[in-house]
Amino acid sequence: METNLSSKKYGLKLTEKDVSEIIKDRERVLNHQGRVELDIKVTVKIIEFLYSSPYVNQDNYSDTVIGLQEIFYYLKSETDDQIADDILLNKIFKLYENICAGSLELLRGREADKLINKIKYQDPDKEVADA
User: pLDDT (tens digit, 9 = 90+) per residue, 24-41?
Assistant: First the structure.
């Protein structure tokens, strides 16, 4: 709810119902991926990124947060946590904004597969951050 203080200048606001759905979905995704997270830093960073995105409006705001959470935790699991959260989030955001032009389907499919392959099968002498 605190993110609403910053997002309101972009015309976006999460309701209590939105926040509840985001948290419930986060728990569902974590359970499905067999993951444990003790804080909501990743979710907050996703929200902070999204409210300035040209691809987000009030109608798709909470659904996009939920979709990016799912993609993030899927990628963390599929890459065996080989990449730090902030680096992975930056890669996701760049793909979402540039290559995918706001399409979660494209990000979830083709681009996620490419990113997984780059991270898992990279040249051992190359930085993970370059993936």
Answer: 999 999 999 888 888 899
CB distance 131 to 118 below 8 Å: yes
Quick count: other Cβ atoms within 10 Å of Cβ 97? Answer: 15
pTM: 0.87
Please give the Cα distance from 2 to 8 (Å, whole number): 11
Sequence length of the chain is 131
* DSSP, res 128: G
Pair of tokens at residue 50: 């999204």
What is the Cα–Cα distance from 103 to 92, expressed in whole angstroms? 12
Tokens read off for 59: 């109608």
DSSP letter string, 37-55: -SS-HHHHHHHHHHTT-TT
